[in-house]
Every structure is written in C-alpha cells, then in structure tokens.
Amino acid sequence: MSPFRDPRESLGVLNAETAALLIEGTADIAIVIDDQGVVSDIAYGSDDLSSEFSDDWIGQPWLATVVPESRPNLEALLAEAEHDAITHWRQVTHPTARGTDIPVQYRAMRLSEGGSVVALGRNLQGIAALQQQLVDAQQALERDYWRFRQVETRYRLLFRMVAEAILIIDAPTQRVVEANPASGQLLGESPARVIGRPFPEGFDADSTQAINGLLAGVRAAGRADDVRARLLDSGQEFLVSASLLRQENVSFLLVRLSPLPADSNSSITHPETSSRYLRVLENAPDCVVITDGDGRILTANATFLNLAEVATEQQARGESLDRWLGRPGVDLNVLMANLRQHGTVRLFATTLCGEYGSTTDVEISAAAIRNGERPYFGFFIRDVGRRLGAEPAPTPEQPRWLEQLTERVGRVPLKELVRESTDTIERLCIEAALKLTGDNRASAAELLGLSRQSLYVKIDRYGITDQASEAPVPDKK
C-alpha cells in the first residue's frame, strides 16, 4: 500500500458527512463496530446488497452476522485492527434471508484508540460465480476426457479383435493412416509396414481400378456398392466396402476387406436365366422396387425413378418407400401388414408422389420373399392414370337413398336428417376401408384414423359383415 505524501495539505480536514459519503461511495458495504464488537451503523453501496441482508444487524455482534466457519477470520480482523492503522483484506461469508451465502472481503480501520472500527467490504459474488463456473468447466472437461479415453479404449480393443481387415485411409492422399492386425495377416504384411503406403497396392489391374472407383464414389456420395478385388501374388479375393468418416475438417475412408472363399464365384455369378430376368425387370414398363423388412428401398428400376422424379438409384436406396406413396404412414403399413400375413397383395390402389409435386394414380401388387430370417418385399407398381374407364356406377340403393333424403326435407327436422346422413356416410366409409384392406380390420382402422376398439364398436353398431357392400337405406318416418 502506498499512502498519500501529505494528506492534510491535499485533502484538508474532512468532516463526518464528507467522510461518510466517501466511504459509502467506495465500499460495497461499510460497517461501524463499537469497542464491544457490536454493529452500531451500516451503509450499503448498492440496493442489491441491502435487499439481501436483514436490517437487524445494528445492535448485534458482528460475529453473529457471518457463518460459523468465517468467525475466526473476523476475530483475526478485529484483533489486527487493535494494533495496525489499517488491516489486510480478509474474506468472510454472510448468510442471507433467502438461505444463500454471500462472500465479502473486508478491510478494517480503527478510528481512535479504544474507539470504533470501520470495516469496508467488497462484494465477491461475481468472482465466486466465475470461480464456480471455472470449477464446473474443469470438472466437465475431466469427465469428457475420461469418457473419450474409455471410448478410445473400446475402439482400440474392437479394432484389434475384429477378424476382418480394417484400414483407415486419408481421403485426399489415399494413404493408409491406421490398420488393424487382421489387415496385416490378410495382406501378407505387418500392420506397421502397411501404414503410410498408398491404397490400393498389391491388387491386380482390374481390382485396382474397381477399388479406386469405389473410393471415388464414397468421397462424392458418401457410400457406394461393394466391389470384388484380388491380390496379385496370392490370388486371395476380397469383398471391399468403404464408408466416409469425418473428423473436424479432415476426411478419412474406412475400408473393410472381407475374404471370400475360393468357390464364391459360383454363388455370386448369376445363371443366364437369372440374368435375363434381371434385365427384364430393370427395363420393365412398370415400376419394380425391392425393399427390406422395414420397407426401405434396396433397389429400384428406371421406371420407378422416373415416376418418383429421382435422378439416380443411389438417391432412392435406403429411403422408405412410404416417402413416395400418396398416404404417408398408412399405405405402406397396410401393404406390409398384408404381406406378412398373406405373402402377396394384388391391385392395391393409391397414388405415387414425385419429388417435384407430380402425382400419379397407381396400382400396387407385391410379394414377400423369405431369405432366412431376413425377409424382402418386391413391389410392382403400375401407372393407371391413363387407363380408360369410368368411375364405378353407384349402386341402386345410393340414388334411392338420396331421393328419399330430399323428399323428407320439410317433414323431418334438419338436425335429424344430418345425423342419419352422417351415419350413412360413416358406414359407407367403413365398408370401403374394409374392402380396400381385404377385410383386415386393424389396417382399416389405421386407414380411417380410428382406434381398433372404435372401429369394432362402429362395425357392431351398423351390423357390417366382412363382405358387406350394400349402402344403408334410411326408413321413412
């Protein structure tokens, strides 16, 4: 601390009011303590502190205004004020009426020997909040660090234990950044010697070209079809797959080499008859779509891509077929439920919506294909928008019901006519939904937006049978 050189000349003689104003303006809290350690006066530099502390400090021992842990510091501050003109800063904690604690840093000065002591305090709430934020951030960093260490340990263990060759390749340079032990065994090199070398290396010319095409496709679109590759020396064949991996601003390629058995050619090569079938399906005038058990597209022919307004099959692959059907969340669920129950669906009428807003009336026939535990579904979608034909003629009961309805106008209250008409329309919709879903009540309830219990109640109410097709005719009153 550096004192004034000549305070009497520069400051003059300050009266009590001026000194009080000076103390109030420079301190967050100023307390006057008598020689018995009792608070005789108090001043706050802001309204925030005055609202936090109670007004009954005056007349109480100063030691009673702090938490028990801070009393030794306060006693040391008062003891130091007995001997020194001005004390060092000491921190104490005051409890508030809200139950929270406020840290305050005090410096005390005795006005006269054996007289009162003036304590000037600084509010440390802001510093305490920053310190707590720093502690919380440090703890969060430590938790993240250990979590990342655990994830990295599991990754390293899995990377070493997997039986397939896994290579991590720098995307721009196509050099191997990391390789697991299995890659060294399958490629005939130690993993340390594989790292840093360009990929592909050691494959025949056709395989090298196929792998380069695979990597280029993954860099451009994020994924590509697997390719077959053969080592030049051993003749070992692999199924090569790749995926794109991004870390911060760096791109890597995760390449997997799965060894193929020696007789795999016979199981992969399609017979001539199967090849003819594939060519016919690819060029068929009707849409042909094959999906997995969840309805996600595995392959689709060019006709479907045209109706769906999709440029390439790659854009449709992996997407749900429900994305292009006219009633999202309904049509595909009805189709899948019937396929799982009956194995086939015929002439299911709906619409196909293109990516740019076009709508086409279509009929869908489908079949379920069992492949062990993984079922596949084949959908054959026909454009019926240009089909010549008239709307189905109304049944004789429908015009007669409408005629009876108009004849009763004026004789029956409108409210009753509306109620009977609503019941009739509701029954017609339920019958149409049952007919559309092949009398599958669960699918019909989903199509109508009803719960199964509500649909069953309405079917019992209207006396609808599974093969019901006639419209109700209200009785005259």
Question: Please, could you describe this protein's structure?
Answer:
It comes from Marichromatium bheemlicum. This is Transcriptional regulator PpsR. Residues 151-197 form the PAS domain. With 477 residues, the protein is of the alpha+beta class. It folds into four domains: 14-123, Beta-Lactamase (2-Layer Sandwich); 162-266, PAS domain (Beta-Lactamase, 2-Layer Sandwich), CATH 3.30.450.20; 270-383, 2-Layer Sandwich (Beta-Lactamase), CATH 3.30.450.20; 397-462, Arc Repressor Mutant, subunit A, CATH 1.10.10. 40% of the residues lie in helices and 22% in strands. The chain is built from 17 helices and 15 strands. The protein has helices spanning 7-11, 16-26, 47-52, 71-83, 125-161, 181-187, 191-194, 205-221, 264-268, 272-282, 302-307, 313-316, 331-342, 397-407, 414-436, 441-448, 452-462, and strands at 29-33, 39-44, 90-95, 101-110, 117-123, 165-170, 176-179, 227-230, 237-247, 250-259, 287-291, 297-300, 344-353, 359-369, 376-383. The strands form three sheets. The chain has a five-stranded antiparallel β-sheet with strand order 2-1-5-4-3. Strand 6 and strand 7 form a beta hairpin. Helix 13 runs antiparallel to helix 16 (441-448) and helix 16 (441-448) crosses helix 17 (452-462). The longest helix has 37 residues, at 125-161. The N and C termini lie far apart (108 Å). Residues 264-271 and 467-477 have low confidence and may be disordered.
